[in-house]
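PROTEIN DESIGN WORKSHEET
SECTION A - STRUCTURE
LENGTH: 425
TOKENS:
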């Protein structure tokens, strides 16, 4: 019986490992070419991984929660597959590898007609290999180690539980329901070691965020300046723009993005990064606008490429599409890299100000506080206006306070008088 091992493929963007989120198949299942067999989470995004050959599942190499390195065995199947044949011919020098064309979202196993935005390099022979004998198979139902530990703690037989998770996975709530039915439910969630802290591994997105922010704080001498701005006119302009473009929802974040793009064109020093080894400032000719988006997986920063070439409606559409993909976990690694400036709307959390950490290797970030009613002097008279606090954090290596203050004042003036900005576009 022919056995084939599909190894965790090259994930691109310098990624070297991924965490198994959930298996879509079990031992004994029959799989077809390009069938999605597992969902993994990298430091950039959650990714569905299809298998490039067909057969019967013999082994799943890792339970949910396991971290696998690129090139390590992912799944072993039996039967005749498409890849082993051309691997043998390729080694003999008689045939070019073709592949199924769908190993990973955004990364194909063959060159296509240009419909994909990214193309991965030709896969290495090490990704697929025949082995003489299968490794011991995992149980058909993959269970999180923490869930398994909770069941053991309360003497719950996992085989007697009806799973509610996808692909027959026993979830924590299933075990808790069994504990309650047995009459020994704990008053509160009890950690295995009640005397010590819960240890949560830094993996996936959380690890990537930790590494990037630590590097930013270590390398970038940042400074922050802020100003209060009257956003009453901006809210009115939003209604007017929306009325003129009813087919596309125009949000405040898109308007702030448009203002930032105009500001960066006036102050190009801020649309840059620093090459510390070469001791050079890299000033970018394009503006790739990143914006912070909170998701169930944590904070991500999708990037709208060439934002300076988009209209306000196009910018709003691009930001809306990226936000939806961030919430559903379908962002590709390329969607989260290459930014030259970041917009951070922390006002959605009900706060006024912040001193954020710059999104390395960028040189600046604009923060937007909540917009609330406050007393404000207008033409010498006290009035209630819609006020927001704007903060601007910048890399002091690329500019001095005059440039940073000039950019922030430009943004504040555009917020208070958006028609003046439109007149200059």
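SECTION B - SEQUENCE
RESIDUE ASSIGNMENT:
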């Amino acid at each position: 019986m022919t056995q084939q091992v599909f190894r965790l493929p090259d994930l691109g963007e310098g990624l070297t490992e991924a965490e198994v989120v959930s298996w879509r198949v079990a031992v004994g299942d029959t799989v077809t070419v390009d069938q999605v067999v597992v969902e993994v989470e990298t430091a950039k995004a959650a990714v569905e991984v299809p298998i490039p050959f067909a057969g019967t599942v013999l082994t799943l190499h890792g339970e949910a929660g396991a971290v696998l390195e690129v090139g390590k065995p992912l799944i072993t199947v039996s039967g005749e597959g498409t890849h082993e044949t051309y691997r043998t011919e390729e080694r003999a020098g008689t045939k070019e590898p073709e592949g199924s064309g769908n190993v990973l979202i955004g990364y194909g196993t063959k060159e296509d007609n240009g419909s994909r935005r990214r193309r991965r390099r030709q896969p290495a022979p090490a990704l697929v290999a025949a082995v003489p004998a299968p490794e011991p198979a995992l149980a058909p139902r993959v269970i999180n180690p923490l869930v398994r530990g909770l069941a053991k703690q309360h003497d719950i037989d996992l085989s007697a539980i009806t799973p509610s998770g996808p692909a027959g996975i026993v979830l924590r709530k299933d075990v808790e329901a069994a504990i309650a039915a047995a009459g020994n439910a704990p008053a509160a969630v009890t950690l295995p070691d009640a005397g010590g802290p819960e240890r949560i591994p830094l993996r996936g997105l959380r690890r990537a965020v930790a590494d990037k922010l630590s590097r930013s704080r270590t390398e970038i001498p940042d400074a922050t300046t802020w100003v209060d701005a009257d956003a009453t006119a901006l809210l009115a302009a939003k209604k007017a723009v929306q009325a003129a473009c009813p087919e596309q929802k125009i949000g405040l974040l898109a308007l702030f993005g448009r203002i930032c793009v105009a500001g960066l064109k006036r102050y190009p020093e801020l649309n840059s990064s620093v090459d510390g080894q070469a001791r050079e400032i890299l000033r970018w000719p394009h503006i790739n606008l990143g914006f912070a988006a909170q998701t169930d997986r944590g904070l991500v920063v999708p990037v709208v490429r060439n934002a300076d070439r988009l209209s306000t409606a196009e910018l709003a559409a691009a930001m809306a599409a990226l936000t939806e993909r961030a919430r559903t976990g379908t962002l590709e690694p390329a969607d989260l890299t290459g930014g030259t400036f970041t917009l951070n709307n922390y006002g959605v959390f009900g706060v006024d100000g912040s001193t954020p950490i710059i999104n390395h290797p960028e040189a600046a970030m604009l923060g937007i506080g909540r917009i609330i009613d406050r007393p404000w002097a207008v033409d010498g008279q006290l009035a209630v206006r819609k006020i927001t606090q704007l903060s601007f954090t910048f890399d002091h290596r690329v500019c001095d306070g005059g440039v940073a203050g000039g950019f922030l004042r430009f943004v504040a003036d555009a917020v208070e008088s958006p028609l003046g900005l439109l007149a200059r576009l």
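SECTION C - NOTES
Confidence is low (pLDDT under 50) at residues 81-140.
The longest strand covers residues 381-395.
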